[in-house]
């Protein structure tokens, strides 16, 4: 059993993960609309991974004999002025998710819940990878993205991304 405080903050995190899935899915649609199908593929796979993150939390709460509260998911909105603008927002969004997970970790320590603290470490490690991969795409877009032929090559590269279940599942 987990405390009510831990239950509530984990339920809030489920909402953030599913919001992330919505956000990436809407970005995937935007990239498809402007013909960047590789970018669209990348965002769609990211959306699937976010659903995985939400579902792992869901199973964890149930597994700890606690309660699920699924809150409303906010409609995503983002600046569609360029692929670089979108990825800069992705980076900012992932930084906010990292901060939210830091808060979860701090709460587990306050509640002396070391099992959940250990569980959340998986998410913190995942965030390091996500922030790093998004940073690399931003760097490429900044270096070459103004050239259409280079954007085409970056798009081709992102088309190669394949879905694999999140490593800590
Ligand atoms: Fe599940 Fe991108 O954080």
Account of the protein in words:
Helix 1 runs antiparallel to helix 3. The longest helix is centred in the last third of the chain and has 31 residues. The chain is 76% helix and 0% strand. The chain is elongated. It has a single domain, classed as Up-down Bundle (Ferritin), CATH 1.20.1260. With 169 residues, the protein is mainly alpha-helical. The chain is built from five helices and no strands.
Summarize the structure.
This protein has 169 residues and is mainly α. It has helices at residues 4-33, 37-63, 83-110, 114-144, 148-159. It is elongated, with a radius of gyration of 17 Å.
The whole-angstrom Rg is 17 Å
Q: What is the CATH architecture annotation?
A: Up-down Bundle
- The CATH class, by name, is Mainly Alpha
User: Roughly what percent helix?
Assistant: over 70%
Q: Find the CATH topology.
A: Ferritin
Whole-number total of structural domains = 1
Helix/strand/pairing category: mainly alpha
**Mean pLDDT level:** 96
What is the beta-strand fraction? under 5%
What's the overall geometry? elongated
For the biggest sheet, the summary is: none
Uncertain segments of ≥5 residues (pLDDT<50)?
A: none
State the separation between the terminal residues, measured CA to CA.
21 Å
């Amino acid at each position: 059993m987990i405390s009510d405080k831990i239950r509530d903050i984990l339920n809030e995190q489920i909402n953030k993960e599913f919001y992330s899935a919505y956000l990436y899915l809407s970005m995937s649609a935007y990239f498809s609309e402007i013909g960047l199908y590789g970018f669209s593929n990348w965002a769609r796979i990211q959306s699937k991974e976010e659903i995985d993150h939400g579902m792992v939390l869901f199973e964890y709460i149930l597994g700890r004999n606690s309660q699920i509260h699924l809150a409303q998911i906010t409609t995503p909105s983002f600046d569609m002025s360029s692929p670089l603008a979108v990825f800069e927002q992705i980076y900012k969004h992932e930084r906010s998710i990292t901060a939210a997970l830091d808060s979860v970790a701090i709460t587990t320590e306050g509640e002396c819940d070391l099992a959940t603290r250990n569980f959340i470490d998986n998410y913190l490690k995942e965030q390091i990878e996500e922030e790093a991969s998004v940073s690399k795409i931003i760097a490429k877009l900044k270096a070459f993205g103004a050239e259409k032929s280079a954007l085409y090559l970056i798009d081709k590269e992102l088309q190669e991304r394949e879905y694999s279940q999140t490593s800590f599942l």
